[in-house]
Amino acid sequence: MEFRKLGRTDLNVSSISLGTMTFGEQNTEAEGHAQMDMALERQINLFDTAELYAIPPKPETQGRTEEIIGTWFKKRGNRDQVILATKIVGRSQNTWFREDGSPAQLNRAQIMEAVDASLTRLQSDYIDLYQIHWPDRNVSQFGSNPSIWRDVEPAEDENSIESTLEVMEELVKAGKIRHFGLSNESAWGTMKYLQASEAKGLPRVQSIQNAYSLVSRKFDVGLAEVALREDVGLLAYSSLAQGYLTGKYRNGALPKGSRKQLFQRLGRYETPGAEVAINAYLDLAAELGIDPTVMSLAFVKSRSFVTSVIIGATNLEQLKINIDAGDFEMTAEIEQRINDIHLLYSNPCP
Fold it and tell me: Would you please indicate which residues are annotated as catalytic (active-site) residues?
């Protein structure tokens, strides 16, 4: 396993990390524990979760993933072996995240409530990396990096980036979190966080967790330079395009128990132009004799601005394949072939 520095911290994290959003919905507690056991055995030391999870989000399973991680920590007694990342939701009209039923936003009271609730569920005294799941401000598109811009009105009670950082400083001083990161953020938002932290001596952004895959490379434009020059590495999620880049859904296939069959929540990867682009990458992998899962994950891992590729699975066989993909070395020839396809079908799945 390769290890990479997390931002400007003293933490070295595995270049493959474990995503846990299926724990508590598609995976039972026992299955989640087995996945974490395998991940740790394979030297994965970065686990990612969120107060939102399990997925799909709903009131009855909210926080369940963190609870499963917490029972694993208690049973194994290995909290010190894991670099734990979790997230607080951004602005949302959903009223089931907070005890008083308020719509979610990033004000001080809600951040304090959220971090304490996560620590309780995780059965931990601290969080290594506390991330904002998406911005407090209204944005043009979830992920904050639209391929088509749409004007939005600012929220009347928008919480400033500076005020969010001030709360993060409180949490660091209290020992509840060690470091701070972003998710589904833009280049503008990331630089505003960095500017505020430098101007006022507040906690520095150490990472950004955005979608990045063969069919969604918007990070290349703007954010890649920010990540490299400012040491705010990408924690890449959805690098298999929610399973589409494995080929499991090709030609209308609908495997039993798959996320698409269960939840029909894959619209991000069913846009006009998505199918032809996905098929082009699947055909390339077949021509090269490479498992498409391996090619897709290895490409993301090979990007200079990537700190870690977050993998997710619903069974141990899938998890093993995903972890093994980290050992595949991307060649210049394969990268060129991938880039040739990208120029024909650029970012069909923003």
Answer: 53
